[in-house]
Amino acid sequence: MSRKRAYRCLNCLEHTVSREFDTSHLSVTCPNCGSFERFVNDAVFQQFRAFEESPPAEIDWARLDRTEKLVVSERLVRSTKTLADFDVVKEEATAGEATAGEATAGD
Ligand SMILES: [Zn+2]
């Protein structure tokens, strides 16, 4: 199996390297920007970019910083998680949950 995976420099977002292994990210010195950077799996980056162009309705995408966005993208691409699994959105839901007075059957 010789399928190569592309990894993209998170500093310049332009340079990609390919490796034969499949991992979420790797750290190498970018020959383009000269910085020792985290290179993210390009499949993850594509998901990230798709959300940047068209934010998902399920989560408050704009509130996340880039790292968080990449983490979300990575989980979606590389695991079986769905947007519903992320807590980032659920803050209001838990806060609005009134404590339903449990009906004590005093019979
Ligand atoms: Zn770079």
Structure description:
The chain is globular, with a radius of gyration of 20 Å. α1 crosses α2. The longest helix has 13 residues. It has one domain. It has a 4-stranded antiparallel sheet. It is 28% helix and 19% strand. The protein is of the alpha+beta class and 107 residues long. The structure holds zinc ion. The site of zinc ion has 9 residues, from loops.
In short:
The protein has 107 residues and is α+β, with helices and mostly antiparallel strands.
How is the secondary structure organized here?
Elements: E1 5-9, E2 16-19, E3 25-29, E4 36-41, H1 42-53, H2 66-78, H3 91-95
Antiparallel strand pairs: 1-2, 1-4, 3-4
Helix pairs in contact: 1-2
Bound molecules: zinc ion.
Zinc ion binds next to loops.
